[in-house]
Amino acid sequence: MQRHKIPSRAGVVIIALVVGLAAGCGGSGKKSSSTTTAATTGTTGTTGTTGTPARDRKVAAEVPTAIKAKGTLVVASNAHYPPNEFFGSDGRTVIGMDPDMATAVAAVMGLKVKVVNARFSTIIPGLSSSKYDLGMSSITDTKQREKAVDFVTYFEAGTSFYVNTTGGTVIQNGLADLCGHSAVVGRGTTQARDATAQSAKCKAAGKPGVNVFVYPNQTAVALAVTRGRGIGMADSPVAAYIVVQSKGKLKLTGTPYNVAPYGIAIPKGNGMAKPVLDALKVLMATGAYKPILSRWYVLSGAIANPQINAAIF
What pLDDT score does 102 carry? Predict the structure, then answer.
């Protein structure tokens, strides 16, 4: 099984054209011991240079003493969700929009980050047990998840469907069209929840349910869809990336649904929500926020008003 490669400039431009990058909501993954300490120097992408933001004295003063003394935030991310988070060419370093955003937010607080690859379904439990300091892995801020962790919103995304180019199911009415079909999703994702809930709705309406196939990560999901297992579901920028990388084997179908905020997940009540929120506001005010999104061609998922615990469902 091959890991996704970084798309070429032309390939990623196609992504932007295909979906306008109206972004999505979820994530899944395969556990790995690979880790990476995010760079503290500027990185150059195809859209320009993104340097590390300066420390903001006021925001740094808000960081709890214990975190400040540690100096480095351990950030959990599932490296199977390009272009938001995935392995670089060395097969170990986690790169993408989320690692870059984590580095920038930490820098404003006067901290560094160590991004670790983790199975998506273990990120929130890992935050609750203090194994991780932050979770940044295309995690949709939901009311259910807010019971376990705090969130600071920083992006918005929806879910897209994708299928085989030849003979794939055409989605016209969103989730309702899944009745009697198979959905292929990542473990622990909002897509898995949505497909399962839709199956119950189908049956209640006297229609065939949805056969939900759950895989450990998006690499496995895409492979299953390619092999005709069913209709793939993923965050819109991720689904678009998968389609482009399939070289004509897959296509998008239907329109994105449930556009909702991604949140930076934080151990509940540990005092980090406010400094993270304020650090994000500094990035926005100083013009450092949007270039990070532009670097990964997901600018249309930008938000203007980050909030703590702002779930809409």
Answer: 98
